[in-house]
Design goal:
Blueprint lengths: L2 H28 L16 E9 L6 E10 L5 E4 L11 E4 L4 H36 L1
Antiparallel strand pairs: 1-2, 3-4
Length: about 140
Amino acid sequence: MDPLTSIIATAASGLRAQGERLKVVSENMANSATTAQEPGGEPYRRKVISFGQDSDAATGAAMVRVAEVTRDMGEFSLRFDPAHPAADENGYVKLPNVNPLIEMSNMREASRSYEANMTMLENARQMRSQLIDLLK
């Protein structure tokens, strides 16, 4: 298979993977203040995404894929708020284990990776176009 097609396939898989990463980050940010509905219950648990590698049989290209999306089993922080509906018998409310600073960092990294894959895709298209022009 032609190397430019492999480049395009790899870049496209990277775009899909980083798009999924951005979805996970946005879900974490959207739920960063979601507490339990009942006293002593668990709030939202942060999601974590991990990637894997596959080979495309048709092109032989290395492809990025989402290996799994799991829950971060880290500790919840507690806030004293006896008036909150989710407060336990001691008046503490468990808060989600989402750190907005980490999520913003992950979002920026995913965005930069997305841009890099898009640049690679555009460069491959441009090289293909130049090759066609040379063959005329």
